[in-house]
Amino acid sequence: MLAKRRVRPHGKHAMSAEVVSLPRKRPTLDPMLALTAPGMNAVNSVILDRMQSEIPLIPRLAGHLISGGGKRLRPMLTLAGAELVGYSGARHHKLAAAVEFIHTATLLHDDVVDGSDLRRGKAAANIIFGNPATVLVGDFLFSRAFELMTEDGSLKVLKILSGASAIIAEGEVDQLTAQRQIETSEERYLHIIGAKTAALFAAASRISAVVAECDEHQEQALDDYGRNLGVAFQLVDDAIDYDSDAAEMGKTRGDDFREGKMTMPVILAYARGDDAERKFWQSAISGRLISDDDLAQAIRLIEKHDAVADTRERARHFAQRAVDALSIFPDGKARAAMAEAAHFAVMRGY
Fold first, then answer.
1. What is the C-alpha separation between 77 and 75, in angstroms, rounded?
2. What is the pLDDT along the chain (350 residues), one digit of tens a residue?
């Protein structure tokens, strides 16, 4: 069983209390996959149908990413939430596909903004097809998502998903303005990832309660589950980029470092460093130190100050909050699968 550790406080939202240990059995995504498998077959059919176009480049480029091996966790949250609240209809299949289209569109746009070479372990779409086509196909997928939302007919669902789309865009712009800004605080970074990552997790989870006509309390509980899971998920992604033992990156090692992104491990290492270390980080994040040797030095400093370990502790904290949000629902396969998915999210990369 993992030992309890105290998180070093830093910033307004830092956690100073002990974090609940993860379960003895190594968590997996298998229960969530099994729970949602029948529904995901229907969702995948919608995705394949709606990514088609008379313009051949559109399905080719979209398919490059959509069929690229992602776990499709976000649409699974919609399906799992529906199971949790006992919904027996089919509306959530199209809405889960809309969620995946929103996510895929943002990935396509992100790769152009970041100039990424890899996505999920293979060449990014912008490298193969070019930036203009990648941006435009991302726009196409956003449009398909909104078609699916309007076909559902619920103004409340439309408000939730369209609102999440706007918040994601705001989060990406906020991250862009924080890039190469060494004084970015932990508080601001949590706000950024709450928008750019966690907003869609929250919306994907919440809409299942809406289609099932649950009360506001249940809606909010599913929103809280998804939002905290999304923050945990992104924090682990931050850790993996600097974790020398991480095996499942699916992108070029050190991308965040070379792009001058102020992620949680850097924020913690910079705050805890001495004057010489801070000067290194100032030069690195400004873009003056980007070699492999510089990356190795960054990793050494991050390890010295337990910045990856404490980033993962923060992720565990948010994952436990996600699990706690499910406490209003009855025990059963759905609740257990969703709880294990939260624990699995923070174990990635070990």
1. 5
2. 334 343 444 444 444 344 444 445 789 999 999 999 999 999 999 999 999 999 999 999 999 988 876 789 999 999 999 999 999 999 999 999 999 999 999 999 999 998 888 777 788 899 999 999 999 999 999 999 999 999 999 999 999 999 999 999 999 999 999 999 999 999 999 999 999 999 999 999 999 999 999 999 999 999 999 999 999 999 999 999 888 554 455 566 788 898 899 999 999 999 999 999 999 999 999 999 889 899 999 999 999 999 999 999 999 999 999 999 999 999 999 999 999 999 999 988 65
- Measured CA to CA, the distance from residue 196 to residue 202 in angstroms comes to 11
User: Closest by alpha carbon to 6, among 240, 328, 317?
Assistant: 317
- Reduced to 3 states, what is the DSSP secondary structure of residue 122? strand
Query: What's the CA angle centered on 318, arms 76 and 235, to 5 degrees?
Result: 80
| Residues 145/98, Cβ–Cβ less than 8 Å | yes
List, in sequence order, every residue forming a beta bridge with 118; answer none if it has no partner. 123
Ordered by where they begin, the domains of the chain are 30-347 (1.10.600.10)
Global confidence as pTM: 0.89
DSSP 176-222: HHHTT-TT--HHHHHHHHIIIIIHHHHHHHHHHHHHTT--HHHHHHH
